[in-house]
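Box 3.1 A note on notation
Throughout this textbook, protein chains are presented in two layers. The first layer is the amino acid sequence; the second is a token string describing backbone geometry. Keep the layers aligned when reading.
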Amino acid sequence: MTSPYVPPRHTWRTRLREVATERLGLKAIALLLAVLLWLVVHARRPAEGDDATGAAPRLDGPRRAPGAGQGRENAPAPASDSTVAATP
């Protein structure tokens, strides 16, 4: 009587080695493209504070939030002769 086939058990180290070593050519190309892309992006971006114009942004005055209106909506109500008394 023959025993049923039992596939070999893969340990996590064996499986990690298999995953790391299969399709090495594609992985090498992907790594090369990633490094080239990183180099191109960093070569094009100017260094921090290295501005060709030497100009700094300047604010002309206080800024208002969009839709804030002319400020009349938030102005205090004009004083009048009649007062409203709060009931306790």
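The chain has a mean pLDDT of 75. The radius of gyration is 36 Å.
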